Amino acid sequence: MVAMLTFGSEFLSGPDRGALAYWRGTDGLPFASRPLMTEAFRDITALGGVTVRLLFAASVTAIFVARGRRVLAALYAATVMGGWGIGYAFKLLFARVRPDIVPHLMHADGFSFPSGHAFNSATIFIAAALAISAHNRGLRPILLTLSVIIAALVAFSRVWLGVHYPSDVVAGWLGGAACAFMAAPFFDRTAEATSLRGTFPAARER
Asked: Can you give the pTM of this predicted structure?
């Protein structure tokens, strides 16, 4: 839907450009009163960068393996790789150039739609929350809330820094979240199967 509104009509053109420029002064630079926020958003955007997100995903996968949950580890890794592949395919399909109406406050290359930072951070963090809480559903609301907030902040940081239109990050966040939630039933079934296997010996004793 976001892609249709972005490329199939002029519906989002004005709001896209206006929302991108809103955070800047007349010179195209951040408002003088907000230098600390700009620095903070550079740090936040790093959470969705290649190095940090791969280290995070590798750590979650390694923890699952160490705890004997190899199937869950494989499913999580497949979700992360699948999300990256889908997001990259969409970038090549739409081939949207990055915005140039305001100065970029950090280096960014490649196509703009959807945002890779938004797409991959939503996939990795939300999928991690779903996978970790598969064995303890009581933790799911807390972990999901934290993961959604982190992914949303990463997405917003891309607009603040001027390297993406709002439609880029909305599409990226929704796409990444969709990948994560589509994997949720597989995480849950794997956890349930593991729990059932653990009850068999006790059942035989009775």
From this structure: 0.84
Contacts by residues 85-92 (CB-CB < 8 Å, ≥ 24 positions apart): 86/119, 86/175, 86/179, 87/114, 87/116, 87/119, 87/120, 87/123, 87/172, 87/175, 87/176, 88/116, 90/3, 90/114, 90/119, 90/171, 90/175, 91/116
Token pair recorded at residue 129: 């929350």
CA 92 vs CA 26, 112, 114, 165: distances in Å: 33, 10, 10, 17
What is the residue extent of each domain of the chain?
72-193
CA 139 to CA 136: how far, in whole Å?
A: 6
Cβ(93)–Cβ(164) below 8 Å: no
pLDDT, tens digit, 9 for 90 and up, residues 11-57 = 667 777 887 877 776 666 666 556 777 788 888 999 888 899 999 99
| pLDDT tens readout for residues 88-142 | 999 999 888 888 888 888 888 888 899 999 999 999 999 999 999 888 888 889 9
CA distances to 21, 104, 127 from 82, rounded to whole Å, are 33, 29, 12
| Of 190, 148, 52, 43, nearest in space to 105 by CA | 43
Which three-class secondary structure state does DSSP give residue 24?
strand
Q: Which residues are registered as beta bridge partners of 24?
A: 30
Sequence-separated (6 or more) residues with CB below 8 Å from residue 158: 45, 48, 115, 117, 118, 164, 168, 169
